[in-house]
Amino acid sequence: MGNLPAVLPGAARSCGLCSRQLSPAPEDGSGPDKGSPVPPRHAEPARFARLKNWETGSIAYDTLCAQAEQELPCSSRRCLGSLVLPKQLPVPGAEGGRSGAELLALARDFIDQYYASIRRESSAAHVQRLREVEAAVRTTGTYQLQEAELIFGAKQAWRNAARCVGRIQWNKLQVFDARDCASVGEMFGFLCSHIQYATNKGNIRSAITIFPQRAPGRGDFRIWNTQLIRYAGYRQPDGSVLGDPANVDITELCVHYGWSPGSGRFDVLPLLLQGPDEAPELFPLPSELVLEVPLTHPTLEWFGELGLRWYALPAVSNMLLEIGGLEFPAAPFNGWYMSSEIGTRNLCDSHRYNLLQEVALRMGLDTRKTSSLWKDKAAVEMNIAVLHSYQEAKVTIVDHHAATESFVKHMENELRTRGGCPADWVWIVPPISGSLTPVFHQEMVNYQLCPTFRYQPDAWKVYVSKGTTVTRRKTFKEVANAVKISAKLMGHMMARRVKATILYATETGRARTYAWSLCQLFRRAFDPKVLRMDEYDIVSLEHETLVLVVTSTFGNGDPPECGESFSKALMEMSSPYTNAAHAEPPKSYKLRFNSVSQSDQLVAAWKRKRRQLSNTDSAGTLGALRFSVFGLGSRAYPHFCAFPVLVEVLEKDSSGTELRAGRCVGVQLSGTPTEAAWGRGC
Predict the structure, then answer these.
(1) Would you give the DSSP letter of residue 341?
(2) What angle separates helix 100-117 from helix 124-140, to the nearest 10 degrees?
(3) What percentage of residues in the chain have a pLDDT greater than 70?
(4) What are the domain boundaries of the chain?
(5) Which end of the chain is more exposed for a tag (fewer CB within 10 A), N or C?
(6) What pTM value is reported for the model?
(7) Residue 14: its pLDDT value, please?
(8) What contacts 635, CB < 8 A, 6 or more positions away?
């Protein structure tokens, strides 16, 4: 580790993609003959990783990866690089501390790094410092960092953060030492000072405040908020969220501990701070401390009417800082925003503020067809609005092109100065215009060095309130009995509800996705079940109370493969004319099916028949059935949604009662509003 450049040995082997394996095969594809036995692979320490830039064709070698000690979740057989939080990444809780030998090894490595960085390795001071650390670990089980070591370690942790794209500024990090903090009141004072310094009236400065380290036999200082500044998310009775859905949990915790919530989409949350072995306390942030930027657009005058805004300072507060084996559970740090973090992720993600369609409609874009690229156009305008607003307010921000270009320069500097740069490609490539940025074409290798920032369990998930007694561990039999009783009670409750069957037929999976969404909606008042059409026994249709059909079509209105047997069986159950004198000669299944559309004679004949029926006529085969049909098709074909129309007609013809007129929408239409409206109307 450290700042010393690594030298590439001539006989070195390469890092595998996800594990330390043998060097990859040559690019020309040459290798052992197919008939020859494959030599056994033996895991060997990695020496370097060969990295190619596919845009420029340049080749680089990362030798720093050989110093990575912590195992990542990937292996020689599977890659977990796209997982946000693999099980192996979060640091264990306080109860899973390191042994003295492990701590001592990490401490020695870090002290060596520090003295190498100041070019004093093997000096008398270096040797003396190692002795001091070893003595402290042996006598107390821990040790204390000197201030210079703390500053060096914090900067190195940012430098080693593989998921951060803005590391070119790592050496300019301002470190605030708050290790002498003794209470949550003092903690709040340190945090206010941090916010004030870092905000700097909009000229954002990178900073970190480091609170006391984890100590044996003592609880941790923790900040329960994921960031120092966040907007509240209020769960509504209908299941929706007012505000930021990402913060619903912490919002409810703040309310639980005494916060009086507001009623807006952008209410700043108070801080929940916890001292060692104490209950968390609530600290509202002074309004003058939080700099916010109202969002406007340089050309779209109506954009300001949306009432959007965002805060200036992104300060992460829920990660653990690890330096030399010492763990600092409370070490909030900040850089500044990249525009796509706000414009694309925070405001446009469907699980966040989800404003994409609202903006697109105000822009007059055709949101019915994905081929209009309305999402892309709206997302670009959102990013333009964010950049424009922050620049007008003189608040530091960087666009994704400038940020990624700076990362490429940083990576080149790191390869030159210390032989490598840990980088997680999945996180480095921005969420918009990925292939237009230079990092998209650059191969990277992901590994973890120390010092580092690590994920840790949410504070409220490991918190045990004061006075709570530790209950004994339940036996498997007790847990099984509790589950059995709960399941029985749930079964009794569901049995009293009206049963609903949701049938779907799909080729691409969209109808299946909507069927399950519909199931979640109906679960509030019904006992629904979801079945694929070819899994459903058509005989059961006579005994159903409520059936909802969600089906797609392809080609000339044809049914999906899994819907053909259902349609054929339904057709055999129903006859379009009850009067034998008017009976039509039998048609083949395909011929009869492909003749169906909204204006076909079959539909018209059914309407004439229904008008002639009276209330005294006997019910048909499906007299007790209530149903509705939702069809997905393409308007490019003459028999648009023919299969859903056929299902609707045949069920009506068998005396089924339609709850709501069937809906047929083009597959290119934006499904959410139409589908949701149909589901709520059933």
Answers:
(1) I
(2) 160
(3) 74
(4) 94-230+268-462, 491-578+587-681
(5) C
(6) 0.71
(7) 43
(8) 666
Alpha carbons 130 and 104: distance in angstroms, whole number: 10
At residue 187, the pLDDT reads 96
Q: Which residues contact 332 (CB under 8 A, 6 or more apart)?
A: 191, 194, 208, 209, 223, 228, 315, 316, 317
Nearest residue to 158 (alpha-carbon basis) of 140, 171, 144: 171
* C-alpha to C-alpha distances, 451 to 112, 152, 336, nearest whole angstrom: 12, 9, 22
Q: At 127, phi and psi to the nearest 5? A: -65, -40
The Cα-based distances of 337 to 310, 316, 350, 410, 576 in angstroms read 11, 12, 20, 18, 65
DSSP state of 393: T
Rounded Cα distance between 216 and 140, Å, is 9
Q: What integer best gives the mean pLDDT of the chain?
A: 82
**Beta pairing partners, 552:** 632
Give CA separation, 263 vs 70, 99, 234, 250, in Å: 45, 49, 8, 16
Query: Residue 46: its pLDDT value, please?
Result: 59
Neighbours of 497 (CB within 10 A): 14
Nearest to 338 by CA among 460, 179, 458, 168: 168
Distance between CA atoms of residues 154 and 418, nearest Å: 18
Cβ pair 273, 283 in contact under 8 A:
yes
Residue 637 has pLDDT above 60, yes or no: no
Could you read off the pLDDT of 31-42 as tens digits, one per residue? 444 444 444 444
> Catalytic pick from 159, 167, 512, 663?
167
336 is catalytic: yes
Q: How confident is the model over 578-595, as a mean pLDDT?
A: 46
- Cβ–Cβ < 8 Å for 222, 333: no
Segment 537-544 shows an average pLDDT of 80
The residue from 336, 374, 427, 606 that is catalytic is 336
- Quick one: pLDDT band at residue 544, thresholds 50, 70, 90? confident
Dump pLDDT digits (tens) for 477-491: 667 777 777 776 766
Helix, strand and coil content of the chain, in percent to the nearest 5, comes to 40, 15, 45
Q: Is the pLDDT of residue 129 over 70?
A: yes
Q: Which of 281, 322, 327, 341 is catalytic?
A: 341
Q: Are 545 and 625 in contact (CB under 8 A)?
A: yes
Q: How many residues does the chain have?
A: 682
Task: Kindly calculate the radius of gyration of the chain based on its CA atoms and give it in whole angstroms.
Answer: 32
Cβ partners under 8 Å of residue 302, min gap 6:
362
Active site residue 132: no
| C-alpha 350 chain-centroid distance | 10
Cβ-based neighbours of 180, under 8 Å, separated by 6 or more: 212
Q: For the residues of 606-666, what is the DSSP string, one character each? A: HHHHHHH--TTSPP-TTTT-EEEEEEEE-TTSSSTTHHHHHHHHHHHHTTPEESS--EEEE
Domains 94-230+268-462 and 491-578+587-681 equal at CATH topology level: no
Q: What is the CATH number of domain 94-230+268-462?
A: 3.90.340.10
Given this model, what pLDDT does residue 642 score? 62
Q: Catalytic: 164?
A: yes
205 annotated active-site? no
Whether the predicted pLDDT of 671 surpasses 60? no
Mean pLDDT, to the nearest integer, of 446-469? 84
**DSSP class of 399:** -
Q: Could you read off the pLDDT of 333-359 as tens digits, one per residue? A: 999 999 999 999 999 999 999 999 999
In CATH, the architecture of 491-578+587-681 is 3-Layer(aba) Sandwich (3.40)
pLDDT of 656 reads: 57
Q: Which contiguous run of DSSP H or E holds residue 187?
A: helix 184-199
Among the residue ranges 4-8, 397-401, 571-575, the one predicted with the least confidence is: 4-8
